[in-house]
Amino acid sequence: TCVQCLGDGNTSLQKLATSIVFFFCLSDVSCNSVEQKIYVELNNTVPCVRLLNATHQIGCQSSISGDTGVIHVLESEADLEWPLSKGPNPPYMVLLESSLFTRSIMMKMKNESNRVAGVAVVVPNTSPPEFSPHTTCPNENTGVYSDNYGPNLAHCNTTVWNPRGNGLSYEEFDFPVFSLKEDNETEFIKQCYLDHNRAVNGSAPQYPLCAMQLFSHMHAVTNTPTCMRRNDINFSINPEMVCDPLGDYNVWGSIRPYNDTVFGHKENESVVIAAARLDSRAFFWEVSTGAEGSVSGFVTLLAAAQALREVTHEAPPTRNILFAFFQGETFDYIGSSRMVYDMENGKFVIDLDNIHSVLEIGQVAVHSGTNLFLHSDPVSRRNNTVNDEVKNLVNNLQSSTAGLSFLLVEPNVSQPLPPSSLQRFLRAQPIPGIVLADHESAFNNRYYESFYDNAANLNLTYPSDLSPEEQLEFVTDTAKSLTDVATVVARALYKQAGGNESLVNNIKVTQMLYGFLVSSNNSWFQAVMAPELKNILKPSPPEYYVGVAMSSTPTRLVQYLLANLTGAATNLTQSQCQKPDELPNESRQMYSYLWVQGIVPPNSTERDSFCVRASVRLTKAVSPAFELGEYASKDYSTWTESRWKFIKARIFLVASRDLEMLTLGVGVAVLFTSLLVTYFISTKADVLFSSTREPASAAY
Known about the structure:
Structural class: alpha/beta
Strand content: 15-25%
Radius of gyration: 32 Å
Strand order of the largest sheet: 1-24-10-5-6-7-9-2
Distance between the termini: 41 Å
Helix content: 25-40%
């Protein structure tokens, strides 16, 4: 115990010393209590983090000890004068509403970063008229168009796809930027500002002032080659990584299975690829919902894949259909470029020569009229063979709209492909392909790659009196619209693969839209997931940022949904499902076997779990640049994410500089006084602590 540290001595001194030691032994409790009284921790915050590529870094960070500033609530752009020049107590922590989170304001603060300690953005529950922090020309340097391929179409020279883009996501800020939810914490901060910091009639507020401290120090600096080189420097037993490549897994499946141990070209095999992207992003880390940007496309493709299961079993088409869901497309086409790379190098079950054509589903949920648009590449169509097959795909799509309420048309003018995975296939070789989208030229999506691209952007609303289970089955107008799009896609794919005309119906996207945009923790998603993965289901939508943790929630959800929608339920037990190769008619080389929870039957508490057999696989969606060690590559994505120790935000009252210096001075004076007293006691110890001792020896 602490008391055991004490030596012999006078009883009263021992009691005093014991009390002092116990005080220090309990100092942790005291310090925690004091800290809680000084600071108010903010829990509902999300940071902007640092990302790096081959040439530079973007994003935000704090200093290693966090950045602290006096809170200033920005009420208008003109109000910037106070934190940037007039305010007497810099640096300032600027709190602003989302309507003021503009490029103009952020760049002014960036240019005066010596007076700005950080920024906190209040994200409201309603969306502004428009907001896109992405660039006006997404992925412009890694698509197919360049000085060597359609130079007049490169860099969005003819079509600006995202005119609302302000580019904030691709700027670097030397101060932390956090988002706050519009809740009680935000109201508390505003009240703290009003009580302590608000200037009256232009006069400086009096101390103490309300301050905020943000911690988001990033380990990586400069660019990807620098941080990857530092990762490789191992001077310690436990080296500390400073950054990680962005990446995940692509999900793919086919109507006829492939042996996943036999790679390369397949003789007499022709494949139609149906593709969609899985990921999205936002300015702030992991708050991207990608409703129009990604979910509308991959939900449509999942529904089409489900519709094709029965018809392709009953009357198999002459060509195979491969469904591909690409991860990391936001960051220079990570997923599609990896699949193309694997095909080129004999690391995939087919190669590029096996591809007959490509149909990609882009943004398809926000209609500006009654038409959807069929985008193709004008450069590759100069090849007559490619042009003929593109025309055939267009005809198959247009003839599949029978009985539906919209038309499919080609853009009126010759223009490049919109940002799409198809561009990465065209970089490798001319392949006939179409990108299906709801926009003729510029995106209809007013919130491209922002946290406002959510369920509300698709008008996905439910009556307030419905239970979660009833909402899951409620058919919204958006669900009806995407059902029609999925019907067209399924019909066209079947015809493109060589099947006869077929009225593919019985398509539902209602449950998928609810699960991917409202709540993933619903009865349907629970039934199709593995028991060990049930914890990834949340009462909120998944995050669609690709990140660095392999097998993200969207990847797993799409993998299991695609397997359940296109595969077959078997009678295998759980142990047989885990080791199917021990059975005579099963093969893990041809199929994947997934044990899923199943539904809870009426009048029962036990789930009917079962084994699904499906030709659904995961393949790496990590840029080839990291496989090749070419961290400065101009051909492949080089995006990495910096590591950090912790993210934290808190507010407190800060005293004036004079009071702080006075407190420091008093503390120093007490320290020196203590040293002098200690020295005096030490030199006079023989007098102060002398005691009468008995003689060393005595006769008895």
